[in-house]
Amino acid sequence: MLLSIAMLSIFGIISHKRGSEHRRTVEALNESEQRFHAIFDNAAIGIAKVSTDGQFQEINKEFCRIIGYTREEVLSQKLGFQHITFPDDLETCWDLAKKLLAGVVQSGSVEKRYVRKDGTVVWVELSVCLLNSSMGLPLCFITSVCDITERKQAEEDTKLSDLLFQNGTEAMTITDGDGAVLKINPAFTKLTGYTADEVIGKNPKILQSGRHDRAFYQKMWQAINTTGRWQGEIWNKRKNGEIYAEWLSINTIFNQDGSVHRRVALFTDISEKKKSEELIWNQANFDFLTQLPNRRMFHDRLELEIKKAYRAQLSLALLFIDLDRFKEVNDTLGHDKGDMLLKEASLRLCACVREIDTVARLGGDEFTVIVGGLNDLSNVERIAQEILKKLAVAFQLAEEFVHVSGSIGITFYPKDGTEVEELLKNADQAMYDAKRHGRNRYSYFTPDMKKAVQMQMHLVNELRTALAEHQFRVYYQPIVELATGSVRTAEALVRWQHPTRGLVSPAEFMPVAEQCGLIVDIGDWVFREAVSQAARWRISQCTEFKISVNKSPVQFQSQGSNHSAWFAHLANLGMTAQSIVMEITQGLLLDASPALSDQLLEFRNAGMQISIDDFGAGCSTPVFSNQIKIDFIKIDQSFVRGLTAESTDSVICEAIISMAHKLGIKVVAEGVETEEQRDLLLKAGCDFGQGYLFAKPVPVEEFEALLCQEGGHSYLKRCSLGKFNLE
Ligand code: C2E
Ligand code: CA
Ligand code: CA
């Protein structure tokens, strides 16, 4: 401002020079002008002389620096302030110019922006006055500008920080070096319920929930005092008394002397997050249906119990409980009822043990119980008995009453094993042992079980390669028509030609193959072999020749079994299903589900005959299906073995034969070893016989040799009419 006044006077002098004192005046003027230029050029503020229409007429160095143009550029390009003013600020500038020109104001000032030559924007504080001629006519504007970009930036930053502080979702407090609250933001009030009036000047301790002990705060302050900062989870209390979890971070701003200037605390409510974390944790560790610990949690608990037992030099017991026939409940009554049963069973299990013991559900109908801190292993027996007793009580599922039982396997730490997986495996094996021995009982793990399982695993591995390496053979055993001695059917019986062990009986490997599902592939292979063989014998021996093929229930249940492939194989060889008899077990008919009946019907409808194998064995009531017509029943060897004229077995055989005939079913007697047996069976009306008396199961070539043998051979003598023929 001072400068503009100085200039005013200088310009005034120039315009008012008088003739008489011309020389002196000119000298003085020159001197003055030099002085002026020195001041003008070196002034710390930007100065410009601007015509009334806005064009720059003179600018000083600082002005040039501010706008980023050289003096020459500005003057030669005849730049006006309108060319370099930030567009948004132009109107204000023109307004001020107009007011000055109209004499409304003598001078004015604005904060405005210039766009520099390089395009950047610079903030200035501008003061302007209008210079008039002696006649009072407007001559020019004298403008002085100060670069205030930095100040503006700082103001902007403060504004932004304030915005952040006011609108941030994180609660904030600023405290002084003594811990008194200086400032809080709205988020703080929202979170804690305290207004500024209620907390300013107070210590943030008012938020303490009482959930943390002294040690917690000591540790926190130790960190703050040494590093200036701390962050972590903390439980605090709202004004309404509600306790909540927050994530808090505290930072310190120090004075130059190292003393504390301010502490800034930022925190967010993480109660919801904690809740959902808890939910996720629960879902990950507990079984949704029964609320019991799940497999994962069971693992953790068992690990913990093992450690405890180790330290205390005590034992622990692990019980593996599997519900017997639970699948039947699920299949027949539906999953809802199945779920009800599982829930009830879990309650019963919990009632059998102490609070400190763990009952877990591993999945399905498998439960485990960990009984820790055992002095006396026999205590577990009582628990196992109690569990069996409780599970044996009828379950009421809505209007239905259901009976299930449990099979329990028991193993001990450290006697049987020291690792989680090992103990679990032991208990599982012992449970299977309980199942094998008739269910509704418990078995203790023994090292033999481990050996048996290892052997079984070995067998499974060997079986896998056996198929690929063509180690299976099919042997054939004739089924002889007792009245005529003719043979039109042979049973296909698989053998395993083991590379080192020699011929292995199916009785040894079939149960394992069934368990591991390999029976499906083996069964497929036997079926194909049998069909091919039937095709050959139909040409070489007898056009009606049939082969009886055993089919395990597992093959029916397996999703991998592919019946259409069987039919395709028959068709490929130009064979009909009539060339095959399918031997199934009674148990299969007993459990027949609609899907299974459909499969059987499909075979039946294609012309395949159905035979019930091992009839009478292990089943108290004979099962027949109205839906599926049965062609043969095979009286189990156990009845034939004890067959003498006076034996009960002969009564049973007669009864079976007469019942079967009434139902239009033909009867095959299995395991016929003596002529007496054969004669008694024949007398009882039995249609066919199969057994060592006629022939053992033999390879194809031997079988063919048998068929070719002529009268007089010892073999033929054993047949009913002294001959053994094909027609
Ligand atoms: P199975 O179906 O009851 O077969 C009859 C079994 O009795 C055969 O045992 C046979 O060799 C034997 N046997 C025949 N005549 C006599 C006799 O006079 N006295 C005695 N003591 N036994 C006799 P094998 O061949 O050891 O087969 C055992 C079981 O393995 C079969 O019992 C059958 O259930 C199963 N099996 C065999 N091959 C297959 C197959 O390809 N598929 C399926 N699923 N099971 C098969
Ligand atoms: Ca059979
Ligand atoms: Ca049989």
TrEMBL record:
GO MF terms, alphabetically ordered: catalytic activity
Lineage: superkingdom: Bacteria
CDD domains referenced in this protein's UniProt entry, alphabetically: EAL, GGDEF, PAS
Segments forming domain GGDEF: 314-447
Cross-referenced InterPro entries: Biofilm_reg_signaling, EAL_dom, EAL_sf, GGDEF_dom, Nucleotide_cyclase, PAC, PAS, PAS-assoc_C
Co-factor requirement: Mg(2+)
Gene3D superfamilies per the UniProt record, alphabetical: 3.30.70.270, EAL domain, PAS domain
SUPFAM superfamilies in the record: EAL domain-like (SSF141868), Nucleotide cyclase (SSF55073), PYP-like sensor domain (PAS domain) (SSF55785)
Originating organism: Candidatus Methylumidiphilus alinenensis
SMART domains, alphabetized: EAL (SM00052), GGDEF (SM00267), PAC (SM00086), PAS (SM00091)
Domain PAS: from-to ranges: 32-104, 157-203
Protein name (database record): Diguanylate cyclase
Limits of the EAL domain: 456-711
Domain PAC stretches: 108-160, 230-282
